[in-house]
Every structure is written in C-alpha cells, then in structure tokens.
Amino acid sequence: MSKKSATIPFTVFSLRFLIASVFLAGMVTWAVLGTASVSISHLDIDEDPKATTLEARASSRDSRSAAPDRRLHEANLPPRIRQSLMAWREFVANNFAGDEACAECHAAEYAAHQRSGHSRTLTLMTKSILASELSEQGMHKDSRREQEFTFTATADTFLVRDEANAPGIAVPVTWLVGSGIHAQTPIAVDELTQKGVELRWSSFAGHVEVGLTPDHERFDEFVPGSIECFGRPLDASDIRACLGCHSTIAAPPSIPIMQSLVIANVGCERCHGPRKDHVDLAHHGFAEQAKPMLKYENAEAYMDACAACHRDENSVHPDAKAFELARFQPYGIKRSKCYLQSDGQLTCSTCHDPHDTVSHDRLRSIAQCVNCHDGAHDAGQEAAGIVKAICSHEPSGDCIECHMPAVEWAGEISFHDHWIRVQ
Ligand code: HEC
Ligand code: HEC
Ligand code: HEC
Ligand code: HEC
Ligand code: HEC
Ligand code: HEC
Ligand code: HEC
C-alpha cells in the first residue's frame, strides 16, 4: 500500500493538538463481529448503557432482526481521546463547507461533479440501493466456495450471515465503496476492535447478481467460524487507506475510526482544500480574499495531487503486472513522452475535465491527440523541444485503440493504459 494513500490529507494544518496516541498499538486481537466475546479493556471504553447489553446481544443472535451495536459512542471514550475528537470536529466544522455550499456560485463545476464517480464513491450500506436489492434476493451462493450468504436489512443495519460455516455470527456491513460505474465493494468496520472485513462479494455494473470481489480468489481457503468466512480481513490501516481514498476527509490515526467522522466521497474540498473561509468571504463579495486556493503550480504538482489516490510509481509494487498498472493513470502518464517532452503542458486536464465523468466520445479524444500531434509547431515550441509528430503508421485512425488500448483488469472491467506509446 502506498505511503501516500495511507496519509490523511491536509496535514499542513496544525494537528499538534491531536496528541500522538498509542491508541492503535495495544489493539485487541480480532474478535469476530457480533459475538459477545469482544475484549475492549485495552481501550478503556465503556459499553454504551443505551446500547444493547452483552446478554441482550448474545440472545439477539436468535432474533433475526436485532443488530449488534458495534459503533463507538463518544460518551464512552477515554477523556484524552474524547478531547482529540472534539478538537477534530471543531477543526472540520470551522474549515469545511461541503459540496452543496459551492453549488450556488460554481453551478457548472457542481453539476459536472455530480456526474462524476468522485461525488458518490462512498455510501453507507444501509442507504444504498444494493442493500434493498440484496435483502429482497435474500441470499447469495459463492461461486468458488461451498458457501451461502444470507442478507437481512433493516433501516439502520445490513447483516450478512453464513449459518453453515459461522453459526450465530452476523456481520453488519458499514460502507459500500465505489460508485458502481465499474463496481461496488462492501466493507464492514467494527469500531470496537478497529478491524474490518472487505466482503467477498461485490456488485458489478450491468449484472443483477453480485459476484466475487476482484482478487478474492486468493482467499478461497478459509477457517470456518473465522472472519475469513466473510472476506478479506482488514486492519485499522487498511480501513483508513480505503476510506482515505474514497472520502473528502477522514480523521487522523490518533482518533479511532468512526463512521460519523468520515466526510464521504471525493468532494470539492479534497482537491481544493478546506474552503469555508472562501464561502464566507464570497458571500460578502470577497471571494478572492480567501486565496490562495489549492492551486496546482505545475504539471508535476498536479500529477502528485491525483496520484495520491490514482497512484504512480511510488505506490506500485515492483512486480506489478501490466494489467494491474493500466489502472494507475498517473503511473502511465508520467512515463509517456507526451508528458515528459511537452514542457509541462500536459496534465489530466488536457484530456479530462477533472470535475466530470469520463467522456467516451472517441472523436473528442482523437481531437485531443491531434491537437498536439498536428505536425506543426511554432518556433518557441521547437526551442522547448516540443515535436508534434504525426503518426507515420495510421495518421487518421483511432489513436486510442493503438496507443492507449483498454487492458482487461478483472472480470469485464478494463482500464485504458495511460502509458501512451508505440506498443
Ligand atoms: C458566494 C459565491 C461563492 C461560493 C459559495 C463559492 N465560491 Fe468559489 N469563487 C467565487 C468567486 C467570485 C470566485 C472568483 C474569485 C477570483 O478569482 O477573483 C471563486 C473562485 C473559486 C476558485 C478558483 C480560484 C482561482 O484561483 O482561480 C475555486 C477553485 C473555487 N472558487 C472553489 C470553491 C469551492 C470548492 C467552493 C465551495 C466550498 C466555493 N468556491 C464556493 C465565489 C464563490
Ligand atoms: C490509494 C487509494 C485507494 C485505496 C487505498 C482504495 N481505493 Fe478504491 N479506488 C481508488 C481509485 C483512484 C479508483 C478509481 C480508479 C479505479 O477504478 O481503479 C478506485 C475505484 C474503486 C472501485 C470501483 C469504483 C467504480 O465503480 O469505478 C471500488 C469498488 C473500490 N475502489 C473499492 C475499494 C475498497 C473496498 C478499498 C479498501 C478495501 C479501496 N477501494 C481502497 C483509490 C483507492
Ligand atoms: C478531483 C479533483 C477536483 C475536485 C473533486 C474538484 N475540483 Fe475544481 N478543479 C480541479 C482542478 C485540477 C482544477 C484546475 C482547472 C483545470 O486544470 O482544469 C479545478 C478548477 C476549479 C475551478 C476554476 C475553474 C476555472 O475555470 O478556472 C473552480 C471554480 C472549481 N474547480 C470548483 C470546484 C467545485 C465547486 C467542486 C465541487 C463541486 C470542485 N471544483 C471539485 C480539481 C478538482
Ligand atoms: C500536450 C501535447 C500532447 C498531447 C495532448 C498528446 N501528445 Fe503524444 N506526444 C507529445 C510529445 C511532445 C511527444 C514526444 C515527441 C514526439 O514524438 O512527437 C509525444 C509522443 C507520442 C508518441 C510516441 C511515443 C514514443 O514512445 O515514441 C505517441 C505514440 C503519442 N505521442 C501518441 C499520443 C496520443 C495517442 C495522444 C492522445 C491520446 C497524444 N499523444 C496526446 C505531445 C502530446
Ligand atoms: C481522494 C482520492 C482521489 C483524488 C485526490 C483524485 N481522485 Fe479521481 N477518483 C478517485 C476515486 C475513488 C475514483 C472512483 C470513483 C468511483 O467510485 O466511480 C476516481 C475516479 C476518477 C475519474 C473517473 C470519474 C468518472 O465518473 O468517470 C476521473 C476522470 C478522475 N478520478 C480524475 C482525477 C483527477 C484528474 C484527479 C486530480 C486532479 C483526481 N481524480 C484526484 C479518487 C481520487
Ligand atoms: C492501427 C494502429 C494505430 C493507429 C490507429 C494510430 N497509430 Fe500512431 N503509431 C502506430 C504504430 C505501429 C507506430 C510506430 C510506427 C513506426 O515506428 O514505424 C505509431 C507511431 C506513432 C507516433 C510516433 C511517431 C512515428 O510515427 O513514429 C505518434 C506520435 C503517433 N503514432 C501518434 C498517433 C496519433 C495521434 C494517432 C491518432 C490520430 C495515431 N497515432 C493512430 C499505430 C497506430
Ligand atoms: C492524452 C489524453 C489523456 C490524459 C493526459 C489522461 N487521460 Fe485518462 N483517459 C483518456 C482516454 C482517451 C480515456 C478513455 C476514454 C474512453 O473510454 O473512450 C481515459 C480514461 C480514463 C479513466 C477511466 C478508466 C479507464 O482507464 O478507461 C480515468 C479514471 C482516467 N482516464 C483518469 C485520468 C487521470 C487521473 C489522468 C491524469 C493522471 C488522466 N486520465 C490523463 C485520455 C487521457
């Protein structure tokens, strides 16, 4: 996992008040979600008196609808952590305005962003369409294991069970990750233990039934009764990374992972920085006083901003295969002569509106290539070493098919290889 991806953005803002905590160091061993045997003594967290008692929870296993409460409640946190949490809440409230606050003045960017997967890449499972579809279907048979998952949804829980292999255990799914343009993968986060699981089944665009989550062939073998029954175990840093790339902001590691602290989706302020001051000033006609906006000084800084999530050479495994690399657009672009030899003129914005969903209009894409590769160049460009070669092979064909082909990644999902080259 990349170093970058795991770090939370906006560390530039002083977080000194957030005492580096050993909170996660003494973390309890994984306790199966929903069992009463969870040890939380290390954390000094009291069970919420209002939440189900342990006995009630144990007996609730028999009643199909009752859900174990696996969330942390602020009132039960140790004072030191509660203080950090309150400081964090205040920091967020004082600095972030939220996407809706931008809509009135930047209607075009807002509308484009609504179309983009960025704006809906993290959904609470209980609020998702998939949850109601699955509870209607009732169950899913695994394609590779002798296993049957059953689903029960209520207004505030979505529970997964496998009575044959993990009797009495109900896993409450927390988040549905991904917009569904390609896929949506559910994760369960157990706030009491700060561990989780990426479920073995995901929803894929164009398919009614859920299917195997990409890369889960590796987990075909599993120990019955363990969390592996349900999917890939996640530790706290895996969960933070996952939420970190699919959210606008999530709390730093000194604060426990809590659903209520995540600002879901890659919102305006993930790329432009917290802009509450800009909104406040703009309402009084002083929008420009809140500059500098998070500006991308040059192509390199731009590339880094996207690479924090879309990934470049710093986050790819040395033996990553070509089909895996095609998924990481900054990795490819940074290797392309189009980027390296165009004097800092090429960024993702040359071909995409960063606010909008990807256009599949091929003529538009070709026009973008030809815009540079037109054979003509002025003296300044020549001096800067910008050569605009015309294809000697098929100058009027579909450039993308040959120089940025779609590479199959998993199942029917493919990505266009952004390492633009003669293949
Ligand atoms: C009340 C109107 C208003 C609201 C609300 C508002 N803006 Fe602006 N914004 C402006 C104006 C006016 C400018 C142009 C300022 C200038 O460059 O002189 C601007 C400029 C910008 C720019 C370009 C800055 C540049 O360097 O060229 C960005 C980016 C931006 N706003 C983002 C946001 C975001 C994100 C939000 C929501 C959190 C937001 N704005 C909310 C009025 C608004
Ligand atoms: C380093 C940042 C990063 C991390 C960590 C990360 N993702 Fe993503 N994820 C992305 C980016 C960027 C995309 C869009 C490009 C792509 O599809 O690969 C994406 C796409 C997806 C999609 C497809 C969405 C769609 O419909 O196109 C799913 C599903 C997904 N991620 C699930 C997860 C889950 C589950 C985790 C954690 C267990 C996770 N991701 C961790 C960055 C990340
Ligand atoms: C994925 C990152 C990203 C997100 C999310 C994002 N922006 Fe931007 N935005 C950019 C980049 C990059 C630019 C610089 C312009 C360019 O290169 O095309 C920009 C430019 C702008 C500008 C200046 C436009 C101009 O023509 O000068 C405004 C205004 C703006 N964004 C507002 C918003 C608002 C409002 C949202 C949320 C609804 C938003 N942005 C979400 C990356 C983002
Ligand atoms: C900002 C200008 C720019 C854009 C846009 C651009 N290129 Fe390039 N491209 C260059 C430059 C500069 C070079 C290196 C000099 C040359 O070969 O002309 C280059 C080189 C190439 C090469 C040769 C690569 C090699 O390794 O020898 C190919 C193939 C190519 N571009 C295809 C494309 C395609 C296809 C697109 C559209 C998807 C595109 N380019 C968009 C500027 C651009
Ligand atoms: C906080 C992490 C993050 C950052 C930073 C980020 N992205 Fe993304 N991006 C994602 C994720 C996650 C997705 C997949 C969204 C989904 O579920 O469909 C995505 C999807 C996209 C898409 C496809 C959207 C669609 O609807 O087809 C484009 C294009 C894109 N990003 C461009 C950019 C550019 C350009 C930048 C930098 C200016 C950038 N992103 C920065 C996380 C990020
Ligand atoms: C049918 C596949 C195909 C299509 C379509 C195609 N190219 Fe090429 N392109 C090639 C091949 C093969 C070469 C290598 C030619 C050689 O080395 O003799 C090449 C070479 C290039 C080069 C390097 C300069 C050169 O000619 O050696 C550039 C730049 C380029 N193509 C750009 C483009 C652009 C822009 C488009 C779209 C307008 C395009 N190509 C369409 C296959 C294709
Ligand atoms: C030279 C043009 C060009 C540049 C620069 C470029 N892209 Fe793309 N991108 C494309 C084309 C062409 C497609 C395929 C569109 C289609 O489906 O027809 C694409 C597709 C995508 C997709 C959809 C998934 C896929 O691979 O098909 C994402 C996400 C994406 N680009 C992100 C980025 C990011 C992030 C950057 C900057 C690091 C970037 N792109 C730079 C041309 C470009």
UniProtKB/TrEMBL annotation:
Statement: the UniProt record of this protein carries the keyword Transmembrane helix: yes
SUPFAM superfamilies associated with the record: Multiheme cytochromes (SSF48695)
InterPro entries with a match to the protein in the record: Cyt_c-552/4 (IPR023155), Multihaem_cyt_sf (IPR036280), Multiheme_Cytochr_ET (IPR051829)
Membrane spanning stretches: 12-33
Basic and acidic residues bias locations: 58-74
Domain Cytochrome c-552/4: 237-273
Keywords: Membrane, Signal, Transmembrane, Transmembrane helix
Region Disordered: start-end pairs: 54-75
Protein's name in the database: Cytochrome c-552/4 domain-containing protein
